[in-house]
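task queued by scheduler; priority normal; single chain, no ligands, no partner chains; default sampling; output format set to structure tokens
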Amino acid sequence: MAEPVDQTANRTVTVTGSGTAGGAPDMLTLSIGVECRRDNAGGAYTAAGEASAAVAGALRSRGVEDRDIRTSGLNVRADVVWQEGRGQQVTGYIASAMLSVRLRDLDAGSAIIAAAVEAGGNDVRLDGLQLGFADTAAVLALAREAAWADARAAAAQLAGLAGAELGEVVSVRQQPAPSAPVPLGGMQRAFAADSVTVEAGDLSVSTGVTVVWELRSPAG
């Protein structure tokens, strides 16, 4: 006598679930630009170096470690204007540099930023800040758990609609995580007259998982 054929054999269901988890940020990444204009290239370059050193010194004096200060984007260019009848004329030279700074003490963030700006004077530009996590592993793990639960709930519903049950997991693939945390409600950045007030608020990290389950005949 022939064995009954399992109508759900070799059938699968593939579902992508998404999950989000939030937490209080514990690191601030600050971009500080230095731009100096002088009559000659050497003077501009020297001035930019002095301003950068002053800013870095102020940061270190406030407890920022060397590993959290990085210089990039050093550039020297001519400042050119168009003059009627004379064409392009060089009126000076501009040297610029960028400091990327990680602040791990958010409570002292406003005072540290104010000290850096004061040290660099009028040659300093604040080019933005970004709140984040020094280690996203714990928050990402919670987001991953939420994504798994989302995927399994959807897969179970689809299996039931197909008259089947979920079997073994065939494969699991994590979707790419976002490159940076996403701000939740409550994060604010406000500029005061004498300093920058940084309100940390909460951030969220999202991820997704694509899971393939076997489908099997209902028990009984």
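post-processing summary
- The chain has two domains: 12-24+136-216, 27-132.
- Residues 199 and 205 are 19 Å apart (CA to CA).
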